[in-house]
Amino acid sequence: MIAKRTIENLDAAAVLGRRALVRVDFNVPIKDGKVTDDTRLRAAIPTIEDLKDRGARIVLLSHLGRPKGGPDPKYSLKPVVAALERLLGMPVAFIADPAAPAAVELTKQLPRGAVALVENTRFLPGEERNDVATARMLATLGDFYVNDAFGSAHRAHASTEAVAHLLKPAVAGLLMEKELEYLGGALTSPRRPFVAVLGGAKISGKIDVIRNLLPKVDRILIGGAMANTFFRAKGAATGASLVEEDRIAMAKELLERAGAKLALPTGGVIAPSLERAGENREAAWNAVPDGWAMYDIDAATERAFAGIVAGAKTVVWNGPMGVFETPPFDHGTVAVAKALAAATAAGATTVVGGGDSAAAIEQAGLAGKVSHVSTGGGASLEFLEGKVLPGVAALDDRTP
After folding, report:
1. Is position 155 annotated as part of the catalytic site?
2. Which one of 355, 376, 377, 391 is the catalytic residue?
3. Burial environment of residue 43 by CB neighbours within 10 A (0 to 12, 13 to 18, 19 or more)
4. What pLDDT is attached to residue 395?
5. 375, 150 Cβ separation under 8 angstroms
């Protein structure tokens, strides 16, 4: 477990009337000037409410999208203000230019419990370079720093890393604390059996995860298109399935090292193409005809994987079992989501990585039936790889 100080470790005097500079992840979809999915906004509300209730003046920082070469109205955070006001039930001030002298004055004049949102941090040229001068400017907007943006913690940017060294205390928010508790707990002190379910398109994106998890887990279940590279490593014909030819030797090495720990699908659902999904049928793992491709795990694998998950006490899932965006190839992914929900109900701790896995379990309507759904796709992946997340490392360590 990574032990970092959190807002709960701050005494009343450290919060009351002081400006909390809070890095959140408001990288949300916006269409026609309106937020179309407020999941990430809702995830930050507990931290904002906690600081609000304790009389802090709250100044929020976030990036949005990937603007090129400076400010771009398309990537403005201004539309987020209305969505945030609805969730908080109060007005939210907007700071269009954090570098303007008036910005500091505005933060100081905020009433206790008030909230302000700063314009997109990626409009600042030094943000993505982790520029100290940019961080110094941002630090003038607060009296202490809170990072609640786990989804951005794997990036060393001015608003996630450099500023944490300049503004003290620098602590984790409630969402960040929850992410570290569940992901960190799974890796450092899992209840056993500990099962990892890994999917997605490419083995290259999960090699480091597999290597890091192998000594820690009791089983690793492999699904998604990356299973095809393992099948090829075992000498199977994979038809037109997606295979990473340059990773076959690596897949062979992982199979040898993992032994019985690594479970592959016994078969899959195949079709001539995604456009001809209606012609789908099941095939054994080593019997995919020429011109056909595997797009999902088969029913027998669904049952086998569900059985292994049912016997687990800790489960970490990252990556779909098939092309879940294209029915009927979502069936295997939904089956895994249901297996995790059932394991949770039976007392297991279940953690879903962000990105596609989070989207899949949300789509299956089961996000509330697992222990934790991570808000960070790239961050959770790097965490599972055993990498140090710069935005986490920069926060104050918790003293015993």
Report:
1. no
2. 355
3. buried
4. 97
5. yes
Q: What is the CA radius of gyration of the chain?
A: 23
Domain ranges of the chain: 7-176, 190-384
Measured between alpha carbons, how far is 180 from 201 in angstroms, rounded to an integer?
26
Residue 1 has a pLDDT of: 56
Instruction: Give yes or no: 129 in active site.
Output: no
Whether residue 185 lies in the annotated active site: no
- Assess whether the region 7-176 and the region 190-384 belong to the same CATH fold: yes
CATH 3.40.50.1260, applies to 7-176: yes
User: Exposed, middle or buried, 318 (CB in 10 Å: 0-12/13-18/19+)?
Assistant: buried
Instruction: State the CATH architecture for 190-384.
Output: 3-Layer(aba) Sandwich (3.40)
CB within 8 Å of 234: residues ≥ 6 apart: 255, 286
Catalytic residue among 40, 54, 122, 206: 40
206 Cβ neighbours under 8 A, 6+ residues apart: 198, 200, 226, 318, 319, 381
Whole-number Å distance between alpha carbons of 70 and 64: 12
Pair type for strands 194-198 and 115-118: unpaired
The yes-or-no answer on residue 52 being catalytic is: no
Q: Which residue numbers in the chain have pLDDT < 70?
A: 1
Q: What percent of the chain lies above the pLDDT cut of 70?
A: 100
pLDDT for 385: 87
As beta bridge partners, residue 34 has 31
